[in-house]
């Protein structure tokens, strides 16, 4: 059996994960609560307010109660599997897409079919698919990977079942699965080497390209403030873009080995990445400072039976306080089962803090003090040199709650960002 690409976390901290044929419920400290056969498949997992779990095995949509007892199942018929979802929308209904068969469809949380539509053009996939359904304002987004060599196409519907548009009809091609930003826009790769923001009606808002080419880009991640992050898969470059399409930072030839499957933590402080194994490099789970791009931690993934281990999760899920990310991995080939990692990323390590030094004379030696209240091995300190709030490269590290700084110029005020560096993850 192999780990699934999706996990989910309940408000009480219970973690749900799957393999090929089973669902697992784990306590927040990793203890096994229950296992349910026939509820695996690795598809997206959703939870409603009562704790009911929704997922699918092949084409069969399933509802499971918090104790691990099946509630109902829905078979859309035909022999083809789901390619998108199921996902629970903000309106309390379920949405999924099937290869041929029903196409896009919606269910009540009681398992009754609300509507179905084959799509225009017809929804089909020659390579299978395992994408989550996304939801905007009066929009349901169904990404479908039509063939193995192309980025997923996107069918866009209203929750009532009316199709609005299809990405293949737009003048600009989608180079990746789309990510929604906080403003309801779709963020996708443009032409493999740029980024594009698209409105909910399919209109291009902006196209951004880096100042210097950095090669093939990986699927972007979007922070809670709308900042877009991507990287060069075959290189060592990291690119962050403001919500208006201008560059926030572009770091070339950095410590960014084959970054893929980017995600931003709920507090917006850390960009997570799976560093994929290959080309003589081992797999890893890494965290990068969302403001500066600096590497903050790296967890090397251990090989087993001579086979490399890489991140498998399409996106992590998070503990209720946002301090732990849950990430699944797989081994290459016919290797052992994958692993579910719980990675400390947030408040349990301490959040970044922005501090101000006022009326500092140029050349003065001053102490920047913040108090040693975080459980951290050391702290990185970054100086704000720009009025837009971006912080420069690291200016120093400190083992405790203060650091001595020499301010190079007279300023009325100067700002610093202090980030705790956790000892382990």
Short recap of the structure:
With 425 residues, this protein is mainly beta. The protein contains no helices and 38 strands.
Structure description:
With 425 residues, this protein is mainly beta. 0% of the residues lie in helices and 45% in strands. It is globular, with a radius of gyration of 23 Å. The chain has no helices and 38 strands.
Arithmetic mean pLDDT? 83
Biggest beta sheet attributes: 4 strands, antiparallel
Q: Spans with pLDDT under 50 lasting ≥5 residues?
A: 347-379, 384-414
- Count the DSSP helices: 0
Q: Which sequence of strands runs across the widest sheet?
A: 1-2-3-4
Percent helix among the residues? under 10%
Helix-strand category: mainly beta
Query: Outline, from the CA principal axes?
Result: globular
Q: For this entry, what is the oligomeric state of its chains?
A: single chain
Report strand %: 35-45%
How large, in whole angstroms, is the Cα Rg?
A: 23 Å
Distance between termini?
26 Å
Q: Please tally the β strands and state the result.
A: 38
Primary descriptors:
single chain, 425 residues, mainly beta, 4-stranded antiparallel beta sheet
Q: Secondary structure elements and their pairing?
A:
Blueprint: E1 8-9, E2 15-18, E3 22-26, E4 32-37, E5 46-47, E6 53-57, E7 60-64, E8 70-74, E9 82-88, E10 94-98, E11 104-107, E12 113-117, E13 134-136, E14 139-144, E15 153-157, E16 163-166, E17 179-180, E18 186-190, E19 194-198, E20 204-208, E21 221-222, E22 228-231, E23 238-241, E24 247-251, E25 259-264, E26 270-275, E27 284-289, E28 295-300, E29 309-311, E30 317-318, E31 324-331, E32 340-344, E33 353-360, E34 365-369, E35 378-384, E36 391-398, E37 402-406, E38 411-421
Antiparallel strand pairs: 1-2, 2-3, 3-4, 5-6, 6-7, 7-8, 9-10, 10-11, 11-12, 13-14, 14-15, 15-16, 17-18, 18-19, 19-20, 21-22, 22-23, 23-24, 25-26, 26-27, 27-28, 29-31, 30-31, 31-32, 33-38, 34-37, 35-36, 35-38
